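Researcher: For the annotation table, I need structure tokens for ArsA/GET3 Anion-transporting ATPase-like domain-containing protein. Please keep the output clean. Sequence:
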Amino acid sequence: MASAAVVDAGDAPEPTVRNLLDQDSLKWVFVGGKGGVGKTTCSSILSVLLASVRQSVLVISTDPAHNLSDAFQQRFTKFPTLVRGFSNLYAMEIDPKVENDDLSGEGMEGFLSELTNAIPGVDEAMSFAEMLKLVQTMDYSVVVFDTAPTGHTLRLLQFPATLEKGLEKVMELKNRFGGLLDQATRLFGLGDDLNEDAMLGRLEGMKDVIEQVNKQFKDPDLTTFVCVCIPEFLSLYETERLVQELAKFEIDSHNIIINQVIFDEEAVESKLLKARVKMQQKYIDQFHMLYDDFNITKLPLLPEEVCGVQALQNFSRHFLTPYKPALKRGTVEELESRVSILKSALQEAEAELDRVRKGKQAA
């Protein structure tokens, strides 16, 4: 496989996310990819970095398994909450389904449940439209979406079409049953909860919001999609699928973050890690070949999780400056460090051998 070196260093885009901070016009930033690759950490750090250059930032988790609260170590709800330590960064976690308290009554709820059974995904679409309505009234300068794994994200991009189907279904029911629906609601004392015109109005309103936002999503000045992955075959495959789908939906994407990289220059002694380095490099080269016009940011594999505002801020430097291992293989410092580690390991092994011998003698 050809190396990344085939791209002339002068032509290759900068391997950082600085371009996202420099693009003042950006309004919507989506962060997506396969499950378990570090999307929440990346979207949290991107929102922290954007907060340093923008007036107000909102980070939203649309993943049912909410991890924003874990990343910032602060409890978030479906309403924007100020992140501790910031004056202009807010976070919220929404469930991609219509909640009962969002509905105006039992009649409407029953009707909506019928509708959601008839059109898969319409409940998520309606919830998303309600959330976008809310976000638009708040006037944040940029909104970062921490999306669910790839399949859910692609559904989210299909919401305008889903709501279109919902409207067609309601119209079909209206035409089929005429005024029967109104009579039934009055007969059972449900008032105007199930008034088809109100229902149609609500769906029309949501469709208008989604279509308006959808136009913004297709504008590269306003919207971009950041793909997060790890240097493995399945993640490369999933990223390719995601990039193709985004192109189909006319959504701009020119940033890829490769997470959990073990750097070859790092002082790696374990045979297992050396094998992983070799395997990862093969896929990193493929990423560079496939996406030579993308900003590709490589992040190091860490021995600990990135949790809490301080840890996020510390790790954020690798998003703006390419990572350089502290100790390079073959340098005096690296060899001294290795000798020190080996001496320490030898002392531990000798102490353990001593304990085992004493144990045998005692037996």
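Researcher: And a one-line annotation?
Model: The longest helix spans residues 332-362.
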